[in-house]
Every structure is written in structure tokens, then in C-alpha cells.
Design brief:
Layout lengths: L2 E7 L6 H9 L5 E7 L6 H5 L6 E4 L5 H11 L4 E4 L5 E2 L3 H11 L5 E10 L4 E5 L6 H6 L9 E4 L1 H4 L13 H11 L4 E13 L8 H12 L3 H5 L1 H14 L8 E5 L9 E5 L11 H23 L1
Length: 302
């Protein structure tokens, strides 16, 4: 079984090598398609070190347009879309391939993810859960695209492409469209991916926050009226299926310091609480990201 991984890119040269390495060491037939929006940083120099990827840099209309371009050229039996600051965990794609082989009725599968900071340190875990329209209308952070994998037929037969009018919330709109078309979602109860809170996450920008407000304002009236009931039912479902429970764990990732080798981190008391709820943490990460960019700019001038 062959897999295609699509990565949209724009001025993410710091994070892209880790993403590429995490795909390249999966030990499965994989094509990695990096679609870049004419980056102004060192992206071109970075990708030159990775001849195994398919790289294209051209003007696009944003992240979701870049993803659509990758989807149109993907040839894998199933597809993943992975942002530059995200990674796959060891053996993830083999686990997904096995799941699809065992569940031919499933079109899209959601795996579990580890959430880390910019240095790869553990922040939380997020266990995948089958989405529903009701929950998506109330909570836009219920789906992590880095741990979502779908068959090629989702694109070719159902024509599920991303709506490029959205700049940050296109993932949620895409999942809603898939549900409305009757596509079948499944759960892979295993960790497949890494989501990084780097300070560059688009969902935390003013554009992202404005899109959330727009999305909620356009939600159906019934979803607004039943908001608290939907939330209670969703949390109960997660509780009953073990989504809030996790014993000591390890994960192996690439970091900016580890170079070509993964490093393994052990977590004795993991938490499910997502760090986006901590305003102070986000402010610190934004400050760190800005300092890193300024350092990079100074280095490029010398």
C-alpha cells in the first residue's frame, strides 16, 4: 500500500527538515509532496538536501490552495496532510495502512497525537475521536489534521477538496463536508503524529480568531441552542472511551538540536489538557518565535 503525504509550506525552513525526516523514515512506500508558496527564507536551500521529496514552489492562494494542489497530484492509496511544524511518529503510516486494510468501509481515520512545544517537550496528548456535525459546530478544536488520514477515493470519487476561502479553519469545514457527504470515519487507537505549538500556529492569529467567530456565527440555530448539551454529550463520550486517560508514555521525535536522529522523551504523568487554553504559554511561545526569527535574520546578514 502506497501513501502520499502533502505538506504546504511558506517561510517554514526552521521546521521543515524535521517534518521531512519524520516522513522519510516510515519504512513504507511513501511520496512526500511539498507545495511551497514562494518562500522568502531558506526553504529552497533546505529542500535541496532532501532529494526524496517532490518540491514545487509557486504562487498560491494560501495553505489550503497549496494542499489542494498536492492532493491533485497525489498517487497514494491513502493520503495525509502534514504541516511543516508537525511530524509523524515512528511506524505511523504502517499502522494506518494496516487499519485501512482491516476496515475497508472506513474512508477517513483519526489517530492519536502528542502535543509538544517548539523544543519538542511534552505539553499534552490528544486522542482521536470520530467527529460529528453537532460537535464541530460547537468546538472547532476537536480535529487535529496531522493525525487524520484518508483514502484516495475521498478525493477522486467524493471530490472533497479544501475550501480556499478559509485561511485557518479549512480543516473543520472539510470534515463537515465529508460528514455531509456520508463518508465513514474511524478511530485508530494509537499515536501517529506530533502537533507542535510553536508560536507560528495560524489558528492563534487574528485571522484565525476572526474565522472562528465567523464560523460560530454562521452555525445552525439548533447548534447554538443546544451548545451545552452537545458539549456535555461529547465530553461524556470521550470519557467513556478512554480519551481522558493515559498512563506513562514515551514518544520519539526530531528536534532542532537532534539533527538526523530522533530523540525519545518519557512522560510519567501525561495530561490531556490542551495548551491553547493557557494564554501565558502562547504569549511566551510567540515571544520565543519572534526572537528566533530575529536571530535568523541577523545570521543571514552576516
Amino acid at each position: 500500500m502506497k501513501v502520499s503525504v502533502v505538506t504546504p509550506s511558506f517561510n517554514m525552513a526552521t521546521w521543515l527538515p524535521m517534518c521531512i525526516r519524520s516522513v522519510a523514515d516510515q519504512n513504507i512506500d511513501v511520496e512526500h509532496l511539498v507545495h511551497d508558496g514562494e518562500s522568502k527564507d531558506e526553504t529552497t536551500e533546505v529542500v535541496a538536501s532532501f532529494p526524496s521529496i517532490t518540491f514545487r514552489s509557486e504562487h498560491d492562494e494560501g495553505m489550503y490552495d497549496a494542499i489542494n494542489r498536492g492532493l491533485r497530484s497525489a498517487t497514494g492509496d491513502f493520503i495525509s496532510y502534514l504541516n511543516c511544524d508537525e511530524q509523524l511518529l515512528p511506524g505511523a503510516l504502517k499502522k494506518v495502512a494496516h487499519y485501512f486494510e482491516e476496515h475497508p468501509e472506513v474512508d477517513i481515520v483519526c489517530g492519536d497525537a502528542v502535543v509538544v512545544d517548539g523544543d519538542g517537550e511534552f505539553l499534552s496528548y490528544r486522542k482521536g475521536c470520530r467527529p460529528t456535525e453537532a460537535v464541530l459546530y460547537v468546538h472547532t478544536n476537536t480535529v487535529l489534521s496531522c493525525a487524520m488520514f484518508f483514502r484516495r477515493r475521498v478525493i477522486e470519487e467524493s471530490q472533497c477538496y479544501f475550501d480556499t476561502s478559509w485561511k485557518a479553519l479549512g480543516d473543520i469545514v472539510w470534515v463537515l463536508e465529508a460528514l455531509k457527504k456520508g463518508l465513514v470515519f474511524g478511530e485508530l487507537r494509537d499515536y501517529t503524529s506530533v502537533f507542535s505549538v510553536t508560536g507560528d500556529n495560524f489558528g492563534r492569529t487574528e485571522v484565525g480568531q476572526n474565522e472562528k467567530r465567523k464560523f460560530y456565527s454562521e452555525s445552525p440555530g439548533w447548534a447554538k441552542c443546544l451548545k451545552y448539551l452537545i458539549t456535555a454529550q461529547y465530553r461524556l463520550r470521550r470519557l467513556m472511551t478512554g480519551k481522558y486517560s493515559q498512563g506513562p508514555m514515551e514518544y520519539s521525535i526530531y528536534t532542532r538540536e537532534s539533527g538526523e536522529e530522533r530523540v525519545t522523551r518519557a512522560v510519567t504523568d501525561p495530561t490531556w489538557r490542551f495548551p491553547y487554553t493557557t494564554a501565558g504559554y502562547i504569549a511566551a511561545e510567540n515571544e520565543r518565535a519572534l526572537a528566533a526569527k530575529e536571530a535568523g535574520a541577523r545570521k543571514s546578514r552576516h
